[in-house]
Amino acid sequence: MNQTEKGYRQLLIRSPILNERSCFLSSCHAHPESEEVLGSLLIKMPLNNLDKAVQKSSTEFFLLAIFTTLALASILILFTRRRIKKPLNAIIKASEAVAKGDNSTRLEIKPNQLDDIRMVSSAFNNMLDNINTASIELQNWSHQLEYKVQKKSEELLEAQNELIHIEKIASLGKLSASVAHEINNPLSGVLTYTKLVHKQLSKTELDPIVKQSMLKHLKVIETETKRCGDIVKGLLDFSRKDQENFNNQHFNKVLKETFDLIAHQMKMENIIFSSDFSAQSDLIYCSENQIKQACVAILVNASEAVSENGEILIRTFNPDTDNIRLEIIDNGSGIAPEDIPHIFEPFFSAKHKTSGIGLGLAIAHGIVISHKGKIEVESKLGKGTIISVILPLIKN
Prior knowledge:
By secondary structure, this protein is α+β, with helices and mostly antiparallel strands. The chain is built from 7 helices and 10 strands. The chain has helices at about 20-25, 50-100, 115-205, 210-240, 250-270, 290-305, 360-370, and strands at about 1-5, 10-20, 35-45, 245-250, 270-275, 285, 310-315, 325-330, 375-380, 385-390. Strands 5-7-8-10-9 form a 5-stranded mixed beta sheet, covered by helices on one side. A 3-stranded antiparallel beta sheet has the order 1-2-3. A two-stranded antiparallel sheet has the order 4-6. Helix 2 packs parallel to helix 3 (about 115-205) and helix 6 (about 290-305) runs antiparallel to helix 7.
């Protein structure tokens, strides 16, 4: 290969001419047999056209390569933008929306999406569904917790009020016991000497008019003194907390005997008196006489509340497995809401027709509390009253 003076390349082919037999034997030649090379054949072939063709082809190939590269790069950028970057931006926006508290955001899943993008979008939507479900459950639990806290707060407030009321009654009971013991002895003396003076005056010769007047006044003293004695007895019953004569009793049996005890009085007052002792479990630890005394006090109070042909129902049932509930229901005049908190206080009475001393319900309340029970009142004016006694059952 060499170049011409004009700069073109030439392809040189040099081939030696060897001495052959025909050469040194032929008459036209004068080469001796000892010469091996007779000469050489030199062929020069210009390469300018070939070089131009190669240069043109190289330029075209380079341009084609550039065009192809640009086209592939454009296609790759377009593909990446539409199939990868756009779905990723949607995932980023959805994540930001969730971070701000919007759990309703969902990614759109298209059939022509890449499998990986579709799987990520589906997993993201499932995660949001689970988060939304968990949030709803948390909200429900939160509402339930708030409701339970509110209910427990109300129960605690009710229990606190009841404790305050019980403490108040207990204080009254202690005071009543002290007063009763202090008053009882003087009253006994007054009553004894009143009877003695009454007896002596009956035998003394006096002006009949003066004598009759003095006897009348002594009778008043005797009556009022007995009344004071009854009050003192009631106070002692109210304050008594002894646990004597406590044993296991069937509540329904005790109530049945109480029902029979007072049924005649109810009939005399033209009151429809009925019972329904349907409690299946009724074994309690109690003083039978005290329970009867409390029930009679409540029933007498109910009979004073109803008018003629009124109705009183006494019934039992089990509100749960631990207690038995007694309800004495009347359709009487009812109790004013402002009087309900005071009806178990000694000497409190909202009834004007009664001749009682206002200790019946207070004594009943004390008896129920001493039996570790609870007494409740529901009443509406003109509709009637339900007084409930809840006592604990004896478990096997």
